[in-house]
Amino acid sequence: MKKAIKILSFFLILCLVGSMVGCGSPENNDTGTEIDGDKEITSMNPGEYVVEVDGYKSMKVQVTLGEKEIKKIEVIEHEETPGVSDAALEEIPEAIVAQQSVGVDTITGATLTSQGIINAVQQAIEEAGGIVEEFELGIEGEEQVSTEARQRMSHGEVPDTWDMTYDVVVVGGGFAGLAAAYSATENGAETLLIDKMPVLGGNSQINGGVYASYTSRIADEMYEALGLEPDTAEKHIEDTIVGGDYLSDEKLVRNFVYGAPFFLDMMLENGLEVRESITRPGGHYGYRTYTTINGVGADIVQVQKDMLEDTDATIMLNTEMTRIYREDGEVGRVVGIEVKTRDGVKTVKAEKGVILTTGGFSGNVEMRSKHVPSLTADIPTTNHVGATGEAITMAQELGANTMHMSYIQLYPFANPNNGVLDAYAVIPFSGPSSGVVYVDEYGQRYVNEGERRDVCSRAAQESGGFPTFSIFDQEIVEKGGFISEEQLIGGMEDDRIFKADSLEELAQMINGHQYADHAVNMAAEALVETIEQHNGFIDDGNDPEFGKVIDQGIMMKIDQGPYYAIPQWPSVHHTMGGLTITERTEVQDIWGEVIPGLYAAGEVTGGVHGTNRLGSNAIPDAAVHGYIAGEIAVTGKMPDFIPEQ
Q: Do residues 377 and 430 both lie within one domain?
């Protein structure tokens, strides 16, 4: 506990001198406790107490206490992130004083700051001789529901006997599931990994292979070779929270940011290859995004599968979970699942826990349009056919809570003909810091290329035409480091990348194609003018049109043929909402209590990304939280790569 500095008020000093000043005290019982209705408050030493605590960073909080009350709370010094923590700094002190309780709700997106202020008040109460528990009250007038009175939703028909028994059962075989199964097995658990599809990987297989990590075992060498400034964990956390409009759970963001280097290094040590580039894609303001050698998530999935094959874990494909079993009674523990296999329905007991890593629900039109009515079947998705979200519904049947379900992200650069996120659709995402320019069908810029995905998608939809295009040149191809020769050649062979010797000829090639039966008539002179203007912005180091951050010496002009164009259009991509979890990946029920034995990680969860996920955060989020879930389920302890607060 940090030391509290007591500042006695002048009034209190006079009281201590003697009764001649007319100071008195309320009548107390023999224990020094005042009984006020149902509340019992022990007398405290009034005064001002300055307490040093940690929120997201360090802060000093001045707490003014009366004999029986919390009078005032003021954060007098802090290093919290502007914008992220403002609401907590203002609202938490007001709520504590108004409710005379340290049991107030924390501010979503600023939980560390909120808890820091609460901790300061608790320390001040103790320093003043008070009892913290007496201020752990509910909101006055609000009926408090006891734990015993809350209904525990369960399946009463839990099997008496089981067809199979394992320590840990992991449902879903993407980044999160493979990481969870590996972690659980490495910690000594007999582990089963199931997937309803015929192959492992799911959306992870077709992911763009971009991975955000503030450092790595190869970072120092690459930063020096590329002339880039090293990144920090604090900046990665801040960008993620700002990018999600401050609605992210800070604890979950800290988890994946601090775990990202651990998991990336583990992949590199086991054979993962990455390109010689670290990029700063939209929404990120640090160079932290690595690209796998083939620009697809399958590169990472293959390493994970190879690692898992070297363990004793059991893998069952074409195995669909159809029920989660939760016991009745006070504990209400999840004890196993029911699955449908080619050999019929089976029951699987999980001695230590069930980990849900089943991904999102972008492929379920009914489910996504329920939360966002505009996302009808007319809008394609980048997702595989198995991304249907039924595990969320099954968990809800047991009382699991969900959050952020209406936040569904479109990927701005998908194939306009079918909505697929192919290997070529990753180039526009990786290109902003190198100088890739986005233009509409009229050859004009329509957005800050460094903006986050939801902004880019909305701007494309409001551009007045279909589709939009990414424009770049040979120098960006050769020096950007995020486009491979195989990728470029394959894109041209598939008619997904257009190549021309001049911008005028490139406009003609764009006009010579159909995009989902739509024709384009781009004026060559408009495209030339747009690119020349953008080149001038790079020379000046300033983008007065859209305010893009230009790092001179890194961002390149488009002035050396041949020139390239990639057609693109938004497609339903990532569901930010899902099951509510703790920082230990434990699934919470609608009362905020943990459902024992049930864990979740990856896109099946909510709370990590807020309203919008920054590109390249998906893999570390899924993989790191999967790894945490595996370790927590077996040992009950957080991995060492998460620093203590």
A: no
